[in-house]
Design brief:
Length: 413
């Protein structure tokens, strides 16, 4: 009964909001037209010059893994409404290479609790995951566009991690996420749309950076009483810097406000237990605090991900560098992922990590790799470079320099 009510409610709101969504957000998930539909197992797909779009799933499996290729051609997109109303679906894995998820792609997948998103993803369409049972979601760091109501009525959603790089949180993105408790808006965001957190009764705090200059609500006289369009509930605390747009908005609308804590002083060493690392503050700027990774705290750890950001003491710092000798001589590390925010890898950062066989790095921001950074890692190491074609080419060129430790037996792809 509850599930039926949820479905009916979602259909009604989706119908009311669809026209507005298209006007405000555009067809973020729309894909290129193809000549004809074809079938591969339970999938219907269309093939264009740039790759394959999955247009429909006709199966009833609980766990689905989308293929990365069909007949040798790469899958690059999940089309509009491709998995719409697949009520049996509980888990979905989307492969690397997929760059966009269409409008309504997983809308009304009422039992969907687990999703694996690829780092290649750049766009999530309107209502992309609306009315699912997701409890947490980490949106990949290369995503630049999230459509209107993308997570509308995900009433079990408690945790959301948004990527640096998106510039707008679109209209009603998290409306009716009744279990969402807190969210941090990335520094790249400049505007927050209408009704983003409508009917989020458990939302206690929203951290808003100075980069946000537009909080998009109706002005007085423009249906101000329509609570649907309010951005925040009155029991939500806005966390921001004084005199920012968010601060002024909160004060004008009698919303509780709390000032952001100050970053630690430059040179301070901070421990980040959740990431198994220690970092050093390289900039204590309120607007753009940064840190460099100094060392690993769990010496027995075999796998490590260097994140794009870390949060310590209520302050979110961008991770922009791996310090010189940070992991030198570590014999346990076998697999490391380097976040897209890293701009510099210092001298001998991974030197002597003889069992380090797998490195994943995103090209784009990484411009400096110092002397012997990878000298003495496993001779059969595989380095996977992700990003745009131009950025990947430039980074691969750097990695193939003898000065950084390159040997011909490495596989760089």
């Amino acid at each position: 009964m509850k599930m039926m009510q949820k479905k009916i409610r979602s259909l009604i709101y989706a119908g009311l909001g669809l026209i507005l969504c298209v006007l405000l957000c555009g067809g973020g998930g729309m894909t290129a037209q193809a000549e004809e539909s074809k079938t591969y197992g339970d999938f219907t797909y269309e093939e264009a010059k740039d790759g394959i779009t999955i247009t429909k799933y006709k199966g009833d499996k609980k766990k689905v893994v989308i293929p990365d290729k069909i007949n040798g051609t790469e899958v690059i997109s999940i089309g509009d409404s491709a998995f719409w109303n697949c009520s049996s679906l509980t888990s979905i894995t989307i492969p690397e290479g997929v760059t966009s998820i269409g409008d309504f792609a997983f809308d009304l997948c009422l039992n969907l609790t687990s999703i694996t998103l690829p780092n290649s993803l750049t766009c999530i369409g309107s209502y992309g995951f609306a009315t699912t049972d997701l409890t947490s979601i980490t949106i990949p760091e290369n995503v630049r566009s999230i459509g209107c109501e993308a997570f509308f009525s995900c009433d079990k959603l408690k945790k959301v991690v948004l990527p640096e790089g998106i510039t707008r949180i679109s209209s009603k993105t998290f409306a009716m996420c009744s279990n969402l408790t807190s969210i941090t808006v990335p520094d790249s965001v400049t505007s927050i749309g209408k009704g983003v957190f409508f009917s989020c009764p458990k939302l206690k705090s929203v951290v808003i950076p100075d980069s946000v200059i537009e909080i998009d609500v109706f002005k007085k006289g423009e249906n101000e009483s329509g609570y649907w369009w309010t951005v925040f509930n009155q029991n939500t605390t806005v966390i921001c810097n004084k005199n920012s747009a968010a601060y002024k908005y909160a004060k004008e609308n009698n919303i509780p406000v709390k000032l952001m804590p100050k970053p630690a002083k430059k040179g301070t060493i901070l421990t980040v237990p959740s990431k198994k690392i220690k970092v050093k503050v390289t900039s204590s700027s309120k607007k753009n605090p940064t840190v460099a990774v100094m060392k690993i705290t769990n010496k027995k750890a075999k796998k490590l991900t260097i994140p794009s950001t870390v949060k310590v003491g209520g302050v979110t710092y961008k991770v922009t560098a791996v310090a010189s000798q940070a992991f030198k001589g570590n014999k346990n590390l076998t697999n490391i992922t380097i976040g897209r925010g890293i701009t510099k890898i210092g001298n001998e950062a991974f030197a002597g990590c003889k069992n380090l066989k797998k490195i994943t790095v995103t090209a784009g921001n990484l411009t400096t790799i110092r002397k012997s950074a990878f000298k003495g890692i496993n001779k059969k190491a595989t380095i996977t470079v992700k990003g745009t074609k131009k950025a990947k080419t430039a980074l691969k060129k750097q990695l193939k320099k003898k000065s950084v430790g390159y040997v011909k037996t490495w596989k760089i792809k």
